[in-house]
């Protein structure tokens, strides 16, 4: 496959295909997200930053960081932030935009085999990336491993709106409107076909909360954002 051909990931979530897909949409990724979410992506990012509550002197891992928009928000607090992603194209775009920040570093990383030591981070977070991992439970266990005792977990992920009417409208938008928005924005529309499929296939809020508990996290809780389009999950590693 040449770099000019659209890279279409599927629910097999082959890491190379998913990574290649994100490489191809990196340049226009943030712009397309803003258009397709009607600006809600900025509100969700702000909510995630508040949940992580980064503080100066802390070490924070932002996994599936993409273009590092969220990482830059965490770094604004003075925390030492690692933006990690398995897409070199996304990381390159992140470096282009935010590479000037002295307390922000970039690492290419596999969520199921993180290149970090045990108990390294005060907080770990992952936004819209867990559902792209072949073994999400293994990724949650890896996040647990690299977090210090007492450290914080924040997962922001697309989820299942609890209201039946809104859920039906949302699924129609994802299936029929979202790929057209991607085409207008000039990005890989097939990538957003995969986005719709991955959201539809992803478990609901309670199931993800159960997975987090299974990985060993405690004080697990979540709250819905934008009527449950996304859910913000929080937890803590035992002391």
From TrEMBL:
Enzyme superclass (EC): transferase
Organism: Microbacterium istanbulense
List of residues binding S-adenosyl-L-methionine: 67, 85, 110-111, 127
Pfam families the record matches: Ubie_methyltran (PF01209)
UniProt function note: Methyltransferase required for the conversion of demethylmenaquinol (DMKH2) to menaquinol (MKH2).
Name of the featured protein: Demethylmenaquinone methyltransferase
Single annotated GO MF: methyltransferase activity
PANTHER family, per the entry: 2-METHOXY-6-POLYPRENYL-1,4-BENZOQUINOL METHYLASE, MITOCHONDRIAL, METHYLTRANSFERASE
Family: Belongs to the class I-like SAM-binding methyltransferase superfamily. MenG/UbiE family.
Top-level taxonomy: Bacteria, Bacillati, Actinomycetota, Actinomycetes, Micrococcales
Catalytic activity field: a 2-demethylmenaquinol + S-adenosyl-L-methionine = a menaquinol + S-adenosyl-L-homocysteine + H(+)
E.C. code: 2.1.1.163
Stretches that traverse the bilayer: none
Pathway linked to the protein: Quinol/quinone metabolism; menaquinone biosynthesis; menaquinol from 1,4-dihydroxy-2-naphthoate: step 2/2
Keyword S-adenosyl-L-methionine assigned: yes
Keyword annotations from UniProtKB, A to Z: Menaquinone biosynthesis, Methyltransferase, S-adenosyl-L-methionine, Transferase
One record GO biological process: methylation
